[in-house]
Amino acid sequence: MDTVMSVKKRPPSTKGKRVLEPLPSAAEKQGWGFLSNHCHVLVCLHLDAHMPLREVAVRVGITLRAVQRIVAELTEDGFITISKEGRNNVYEIHGEKYLRHPLEAHHRIRNLLELLEK
Q1: 20, 31, 39, 55 — which has fewest CB within 10 A?
Q2: For the whole model, what pTM was predicted?
């Protein structure tokens, strides 16, 4: 009789990656925030360029479709580039680009992301 062996998948390696903390529960969320969903998506991809968009959606608290739209807009405007690594997407943020709003247009994306990662 043939025996079927189950193969366990190893969890993805976190070596060299920043491990993100769990999200607060819905009861801990406030009503509004100072940063846009575009910024939240950029922060997630900055912290882990290999993060699946499904996970980005969960962390930001928006739908997968909304994250896909934001990523498409950021790509179209040259803020990120998407490349493939095997079957996975890798997101490269172009930190040299300037923020879009006239009040912040003198700051680069890199400055914002560095501030938020501290």
Answers
A1: 31
A2: 0.75
